[in-house]
Amino acid sequence: QNAALRRGVLVMRHGERVDQVFGKSWLQQCLTADGKYYRADLNFPSALPKRKDSMKQFEYDPPLSCCGIFQSRLIGEALLDQEVVVTCVYSSPALRCVQTAQHVLQGLKLNQKVKIRVEPGLFEWTKWETSKVIPNFLTVAELAEASYSIDTSYSGNFPLSSLVPSESYEDYLSRSSAGPGSAAAPSLLLFAFSAVPGVILIVGHGSSLASFTWPLIGLPNRNSSDFAQMVRKV
Amino acid sequence: QNAALRRGVLVMRHGERVDQVFGKSWLQQCLTADGKYYRADLNFPSALPKRKDSMKQFEYDPPLSCCGIFQSRLIGEALLDQEVVVTCVYSSPALRCVQTAQHVLQGLKLNQKVKIRVEPGLFEWTKWETSKVIPNFLTVAELAEASYSIDTSYSGNFPLSSLVPSESYEDYLSRSSAGPGSAAAPSLLLFAFSAVPGVILIVGHGSSLASFTWPLIGLPNRNSSDFAQMVRKV
Question: Quick check: ipTM above 0.90?
């Protein structure tokens, strides 16, 4: 089939995150005494985006490592090699996901053309986050300010205010479903009704690889322990 | 001390090479039936430079892997962070070294300013190369054609025609020495007599880390088995 006419939905996880490499104390390792970021190791990113609230908030919303940026770019290059035409990108509001989306688009040479839609409903199952509150994600304006290619007109299908900490498995599945008010709904509708061919890219978390693909292909949901076991293998 | 006034000689080894990852048969893995290069794995580079002789010659002069390019760029970024001012770059004629030099310069944001001097005398101890002949290195013209930042006016202090296969340890040390007609001589002279401050970067091989640093700091040479043991640890 002509690659340009191919249609599909790609669901991917973010790249390597700094705390995965440097542990929970990563932020302490790369802040000076007066609270300025410096690159304490080459696998830390060269800079952090500016944020209005405190630097401390990065602890609950860590960026990609330098290697994670490299991985994301390579994935974009691989998609370009395969002539995959990405027409639309949805990302979790987590910084690591927005960054992954950005660098995949750079690898695809589409960062000037395709804007990232930040969809709060794509965030990780909050029960699995170490933080007991929903992180203060960078706002769409802050992300755009930091040169991320963001669709500032997209407001999200599942509102950020509806994300609750330690949500139940059922609540998580419901916002991952294809139903109305869910995170997957707009991409599914786009896929089903858009006359434009191309691929919709969804950048989420380990759990997204299961929770966002099952409803899309009509598979029944599994119980939460099977789900956890499956995601652990990601 | 003011970083811009610092003077020194940095000797480094090339980054990860494709055959280190994919083995001796790497070239077979990424050539189509009609002999065209394709990126069979994301850790292969996105393209190979054009060469007038056969593609087969890359087997004896392998390029960097994609990860090797990433490593080299990171080293350049680290030098930039440390405000190291590189004023002059010498590279072994091996493609992996020229590529390392190029990506270090890119990380340093100096690729438009500083040109790479290809010095045949910086090549690996030929006894340690698997090939029983001296590889057909890409010419300076071919490297420039492939967009490497090359000083095409530099002709080399140790001529390529003087490189012999399976050379003795003494011959190798002699071309690595600080004496006249050696590979290190021009950089040493530059270092000693130049009024311009800054750092001279030498990109070579595992063995270079010993053979080019010992004479520069006045250490006596060791016997060949001590030398081999030391380089094995690199």
Answer: no
B42 touches chain A (CB under 8 A): yes
Question: What are the contacts of A50-54 at 24+ separation with CB within 8 A?
Answer: A50/A142, A50/A145, A50/A146, A51/A138, A51/A142, A52/A142, A53/A136
Residue found under tokens 């001296």: B134
B103 is catalytic: no
- Which residue out of A6, A7, A13, A222 is catalytically annotated? A13
**Chain B nearest C-alpha distance from A38 (Å):** 10
pLDDT 10s digits, B107-137: 999 999 999 999 999 999 999 887 788 999 9
A74 touches chain B (CB under 8 A): yes
The reported pLDDT for the residue numbered B132 is: 83
Summarize chain A as % helix, strand, coil (round to 5). Answer: 40, 10, 45
Q: How do the domains of chain B map onto residue ranges?
A: 3-14+83-232
Sheet of A198-204: strand order equals A7-13, A198-204, A86-91, A116-118
Amino acid letter at B134? Answer: I
Mean pLDDT of chain B: 90
Alpha-carbon gap, residue B205 to B208, rounded angstroms: 5
pLDDT at residue number B102: 98
Per this entry, what is the length of chain A? 234
| A contacts of B70 (beta carbons < 8 Å) | 67, 70
Give the active site residue among A17, A96, A103, A205. A205
Structural element, H or E, at residue A87: strand A86-91
Phi first, then psi, for residue A90 (nearest 5°) are -110, 135
Q: Can you give the pTM of this predicted structure?
A: 0.83
What is the Cβ-side half-sphere exposure of residue B207, based on CA atoms within 13 angstroms?
24
B83 HSE (CA, 13 A, CB side): 7
Whether the pLDDT of residue A195 is over 70: the answer is no
> Stretch B159-179: mean pLDDT, rounded?
89
Q: What CATH number belongs to A3-14+83-232? A: 3.40.50.1240
pLDDT digits (tens, 9 = 90+) for B8-56: 889 999 999 999 999 999 999 999 999 999 999 999 999 999 999 999 9
CA neighbor of A137 nearest in space, from A44, A30, A63: A63
Helix (H) or strand (E) holding A89: strand A86-91
